[in-house]
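Quick question about two entries, pasted in order.
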Amino acid sequence: SRTRVGALTFLGGVHLTSRDPAFGGYSSLAVTGDRFTMLSDGGNAASFRMGADWRPADIGFTNLPGGPGEGWKKADRDSESMAIDPRTGTIWAGFEGANAIWRYAPGFARVEGHVAPAAMKRWDVNGGAESLVRLHDGRFLAISETTRGPRVPVPMRRGRQALIFAGDPVADSRPALRFTYMPPNGYDPADATELPDGRLLVLNRAFDLPFVFTNILVLIDPREIREGATVTGRAIATLAPPLIHDNFEGVAATRESGATMLWLVSDDNDAALLERTLLLKFRLDV
């Protein structure tokens, strides 16, 4: 069977299931050591440890202790992105409908603060901070799923608005750096992560009939990001038929034995009969 996909080598994966009706809809992922944390559109978090045997252990579920809206469905919350400080365990979540960022104590124990950044005020109601990344130097990256940036000299394409916050957006009021991310044609940015070497990787997603999701992973040199810049990056892998494919919306990077690993989680859109919650592992060779 084929294991090589562009710059990725497939190492394995697991199909996650639960009888809990709130399980699923995961669109953001964080991995610290062997601890996995997934946050759903409906504000439900699942965490577990998993080793080489692919068997989740020490499993826990919780609901957000606060945030825009109430309930456990996407329409109630729309929590689309998440970042975790691996040193302190502090968690930030991006809410697409409210164009807001909320900060939580480790394990989502309590709300610590929230902000509706001025730079996100006019982002699309259903296309806000789909990606939220805490960078190693303490800055934050946010990318809108659908909010268009300024027109660029590429036929039939417009980029997505993106921001770099100088620090914790909940506590640091300095204006964000604005730039435009140009996804592959026909794709929307779904999530992003910072690699151990400081490069950025954006997970892009597209949907086409008959009910087929595809993804393109794009590598970005952070030195290209500056005020007003348009950043395209370089496509390094495409997940599409006949290879394994699904509605992958979450990505995280880890380091193992000197190699960079990428983890992808799929959002089943609470439609388990049509989609799955898959957690896949790849080695990045670029």
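Here is the second entry:
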Amino acid sequence: MLDNAPSDVPHYDVAFYDDDVIADPFPHYAAMRALGPVVYLPQLGNYAFTHFATVRDGLRNHPAFSSAAGVSADDFGSGLQAGNIIASDPPRHTTMRKAMLPTLMPASLSDLRENFDRLAEHLVDGLTELDEFDAIADFASFLPLSVVRDLVGLPEFGKENMLKWGAAAFDIAGIQNDRGKRAVETIKEMRAFVLDILDNGAASDGSWARRVIDLVDSKKLAPDIAPYTIRDYINPSLDTTISATGHLIRLLSQNPDQWDKVRAEPGLAPAAIAEAVRLGTPIRSFARTAVDDITVEGVVIPKGARVMMLYASANRDEAVFENADAFDVTRTNTSHLGFGHGIHTCVGLHLAQMEMLALVRAMIPRVARIETGTPQIAMNNTICGFASLPTVFHKDHHPATDWPAN
């Protein structure tokens, strides 16, 4: 925390990581946007960018706003992130991203589509026969847990714990509250497991983890970077997609007219997914550190200050998104920040979109109406999502015979 609170910037005095704020952060984001594009959070000692343009430009300007000191809201979590791809600047970040990208680009993922579609169709067929199911455990988690875990290629203990490890990594990205403290031992467990994989070469043939091991063996990747790369496959590959899918189901149930539009025009499915990511914004925020004194929107941010990039606030900026709180599958402006921006754009965004599209494609001819109950909020310092979401898929008993394949 800075010794002297700044006087040239609006203050927003809230305990940002208290349970009530995590459960419903959006009124706070709206209040901060009303104060201005840059605010100061005295309880954290951090600055925050609240408007779309300010967040976008801050993410673009990685030379001025560094990730290398960590992206957590305090020194505790940031120190634990050291070396990860999200907590790196070029050239290290470039090296790590190049190691991961080949497996996550559309061309590499294209062979998965048929399997995703087949699994999603079988899943939705079964869910339409149930009186009720949990959209998180039974639907949103299905493809990540049945396919993506195998793509990463961890031994069984790793597969069983990926969700727990990912959630802990995102709790670390907040502050040293009870959630952050509890996550430390979980993070240590994951790190020891990854080191054991590298020592023993215990990764499935053809998997992403095996590819990292092969890159090290062929001297195309430095051994000291390898454990971070495998951990970076583990941490974000499940939680964010599951959270975004949960938001999608909730929003479609709350806006049945929008689901009718998607069913009538399946080409709107990608737009529906983009809207769910915009409104849900699975990752609320990450931080950056000012490399030097810099003036943003008339506010002098001093060297070394931590700046919160509030993705979830930016994605509801009324100056950019007309009727910003509305779920609109015909919205033409789809340039949200739900997958980040700049050099730290989510490396797995194509995979996440492919998984969600497979689920929506399976639903279109099978689900006439979606009904959801009261969700249980997932209490996580960074992830915005549901722990559970009671759901009913009302079956279409007279499906059309000519639903488009795409």
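Reply: The domain at 19-395 is CATH 1.10.630.10 (Cytochrome p450). The first helix runs from residue 19 to 23. Hope that helps.
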